[in-house]
Amino acid sequence: MTDVVRRHAEAEYATELALLAAGDDRPKPPGWKLSPQAVVTYLLGDGDVITPKYIGPRRLMEVAVATLATDRALLLLGVPGTAKTWVSEHLAAAISGDSTLMVQGTAGTPEEAIRYGWNYARLLAEGPTRAALVDSPVMKAMAGGGIARVEELTRIPSDVQDSLITVLSEKVLPIPELGQEVAARKGFNVIATANDRDRGVNELSSALRRRFNTVVLPVPADAEQEIDIVSRRVADLGRALELPDLPPAYEEIRRVVTVFRELRAGVTEDGRTRLKSPSGTMSTAEAISVLVNGVVLATHFGDGVLRAGDVAAGIVGAVVKDPVSDAVVWQEYLETVVRERDGWRDFYRAARSGE
Ligand SMILES: Nc1ncnc2c1ncn2[C@@H]1O[C@H](COP(=O)(O)OP(=O)(O)OP(=O)(O)O)[C@@H](O)[C@H]1O
Ligand SMILES: [Mg+2]
């Protein structure tokens, strides 16, 4: 245990990465710490000492990893909470041992975040020198032959996005002020993520899009898979928060996942009742957070067993993002589905009393 709230993947999973490296006799692309096969094993687990990070189709991870061994960059696309950021961090950790070279895309991301900036005090004192230059994460990744991550690429203004084009096609970053350039070393590549719900990927200029291979991360295939993802992550996060191990709460997890899946799909699992969907995304990531909250409540304010009352308030909070329209959706769901369902009385009562 450390006193850091959240360690980077390469630190958190250092032991697994070292084990994989030690047993890795397959060819590695230049600049890579592991072979592509070992990177995929790191992501999906080996059923033994290597824990699964991503739960989903192996083929997608193979395609993602293979892309990074080419001269094309990787774009992870998907609705919120499908592990785009999570996979991107683990890919960078496994391939280059450093997941920290990251640009967070926002509407205000400046070109300096992708190219370079200046330390103005030094610039004024010394003029444009290499020492006055502030390297961007992309520049550092190029110089070190590592992976740069660009989060939420489609939120970045188009002209700033376009500064990636030269980087990706020429693999150099010119610094006209110094009459120099930074050439990318082998192992350099870029992983971008974009959310196809917030705003469309259409906003990627076609010139830039041609430099990326896109891998779409799907929502979990079925309830069992989603329960598996949620259970593992809740256990991981509980350990990170140093919460005591609670008795397994499979039924409670199954219930949360069911509520999320039904409201997301707009129909009950048996296909009989159509439902209105709330305005929020009801993502797997939110289901995880509802349950972690529940575990904290059960630990500190409950009897140490995760119960309906510990998750009900969190679920209401996740569903009701818009106080007017979502409240109606939730009421309808409670009265037509939750109330009638066998074994859901405790949950119905807890959800009602939290109103
Ligand atoms: N298929 C999956 N396998 C493993 N973990 C998953 C999976 N789907 C979601 N998660 C978990 O969900 C959480 C949120 O994932 P993440 O933040 O990467 O989502 P995202 O796709 O980047 O969402 P956003 O679009 O909101 O940025 C992570 O803790 C991740 O472990
Ligand atoms: Mg993300």
Question: How helical, in percent, are the residues?
Answer: 40-55%
The top-level CATH class of the largest domain is: Alpha Beta
Q: What would CATH call the homologous superfamily of the largest domain? A: P-loop containing nucleotide triphosphate hydrolases
Distance between the first and last residues' Cα: 39 Å
Q: What is the string of SSEs from the N terminus onward?
A: HHHHEHEEHEHEHHEEEHEHHHHHH
Main sheet record = 5 strands, parallel
What gross morphology would you assign?
Answer: elongated
* Shape-level CATH architecture of the largest domain: 3-Layer(aba) Sandwich
Please tally the helical runs, counting DSSP H or I stretches of 4 or more residues: 16
- The total count of strands amounts to 9
Ligands: adenosine-5'-triphosphate, magnesium ion
* Radius of gyration from CA coordinates: 23 Å
CATH topology of the largest domain: Rossmann fold
- Structural class label: alpha/beta
Biggest sheet, spatial arrangement of strands: 2-5-8-1-9
Whole-number mean pLDDT: 93
Give your account of this protein's structure:
The protein has helices at 9-12, 14-22, 36-44, 58-68, 84-96, 120-126, 137-144, 158-161, 163-170, 206-209, 223-240, 250-265, 284-300, 308-319, 325-338, 345-353, and strands at 73-78, 102-104, 116-118, 133-135, 147-151, 172-175, 180-183, 189-195, 212-216. Helix content is 46%, strand content 11%. The two termini are 39 Å apart. The chain has two domains: 9-216, Rossmann fold; 223-353. The structure holds adenosine-5'-triphosphate and magnesium ion (MG). Magnesium ion (MG) is lined by residues 84-85, 193.
